[in-house]
Amino acid sequence: MTTRISARPLTVSDNPNDVQPSPNFAKPLRCWLQCGESVVESETKTDTEKQKKMAIPTTRTKESAEIRIDTAKCTGCGKCVSVCKDYSLVIENRKVKVNSNPIFGCIACGHCMAVCPSEAITIYGRTLSPDDMFDLPADENTADYNQLLALLQRRRSIREFTDRQVAPEIIEKILEAAKTSPMGLPPSDVNVLIFDTKAKNRKFAEDFCAYLTGMKWLVSGWFLTLMRPFWGKTTDELFRKFVCPAFDIYIGEMDKGVNMLTYDAPLAIYFYGSPYVDPADPIVVATTAMHAAEALGLGTCMLGAIHPLIQYGGKAKKFRTKYGIKYKSQEGIFVIFGYPAVKYRKGLKRTFASITTANE
């Protein structure tokens, strides 16, 4: 079981499962809608200049991608237009052309380039180029439902590992699979920090527990009593029944030489975002990595308690800087990997809190 603490500030919802949007698009979008009709494009501007007028920023790029069209190859089939939800493309005179008034500008999702049957469209920018294209695997090489379900059912959270090291080529395969994860907005703003030995993992755990020792006021009785009216019943229960015991276990056991934080796994990877990232992205990437590792014979476990405790305050910033963690972010998660020291005989059926079908 993975227990996750929200990394939001203290003004949180009473529902711990609420996920608030990371970037607030409401205000800039409202301004754009109010001002858009008064903006007159100069006829002398190039198509490229027009494409870049409404770039959506990430930490990796601030400009829209450039769409290039080879009209000699274009058959006017319209497939690219149908898959572009930015309205960056239109059909005129039986040929596709770049729309001078898209919603945001090309975000480099690559759909148009990937769907074009005549290879008439290429995208450049936002870290994407035609060199990133590859042929999709044949249908017979993909897992069917039963094979996928078997992989998912076999996975259990593993915290006991052999001393066998995870080879660099295995780590690379895990990351290659994780890169295929869907994202809120390309290019991905997920960052990855790798602890590729047991010793590195152990040192991080020791430093984190030392860091927690200096933050014990966060779980003191006076602080919890003070904050109860502000953060509500649910958060108060979460702190008293999980966070407080977790502090005691992590620090107390580490004082005895026992790592109950990252379990001395031979590999740990921290997936985290940026101020621009969709909050779900790091979790989706971590999940894909976890399933890839299972397919490679590794055991895995998600660790949700570390990320939220290194987000806010001067000490947290120093801790992030020490480990090269580039940004504080709303969501992030650690995953530990290794060859299991135990083998489970049975699986367990799980359930959702609720399943509701919307009425018409």
Provide a descriptive summary of the structure in words.
With 360 residues, the protein is α+β, with helices and mostly antiparallel strands. It folds into two domains: 55-132, 2-Layer Sandwich (Alpha-Beta Plaits); 155-338, NADH Oxidase, CATH 3.40.109. Helix content is 34%, strand content 11%. The protein contains ten helices and eight strands. The protein has helices at residues 26-36, 47-51, 79-83, 111-115, 145-154, 168-178, 198-213, 221-255, 281-295, 314-322; strands spanning 66-69, 89-92, 95-98, 121-124, 191-195, 267-272, 299-303, 332-338. α6 (168-178) packs across α9 (281-295) and α7 runs antiparallel to α8. The longest helix is centred in the middle third of the chain and has 35 residues, at 221-255.
Quick summary:
With 360 residues, the chain is α+β, with helices and mostly antiparallel strands. The protein contains ten helices and eight strands. It has two domains: 55-132, Alpha-Beta Plaits, CATH 3.30.70.20; 155-338, 3-Layer(aba) Sandwich (NADH Oxidase), CATH 3.40.109.
Question: What is this structure's SSE topology?
Answer:
Elements: H1 26-36, H2 47-51, E1 66-69, H3 79-83, E2 89-92, E3 95-98, H4 111-115, E4 121-124, H5 145-154, H6 168-178, E5 191-195, H7 198-213, H8 221-255, E6 267-272, H9 281-295, E7 299-303, H10 314-322, E8 332-338
Antiparallel strand pairs: 1-4, 2-3, 5-6, 6-8, 7-8
Helix pairs in contact: 6-9, 7-8
What is the second-level CATH architecture of the largest domain? 3-Layer(aba) Sandwich
Q: Describe the strand arrangement of the main beta sheet, using strand numbers.
A: 5-6-8-7
Radius of gyration: 24 Å
Determine the CATH superfamily of the largest domain: NADH Oxidase
Q: pLDDT average, as an integer?
A: 88
What is the distance, rounded to the nearest whole angstrom, between the alpha carbons of the first and last residues?
36 Å
| Main pleated sheet | 4 strands, antiparallel
Helix content range: 25-40%
Beta-strand proportion:
5-15%
Unreliable spans are 1-45
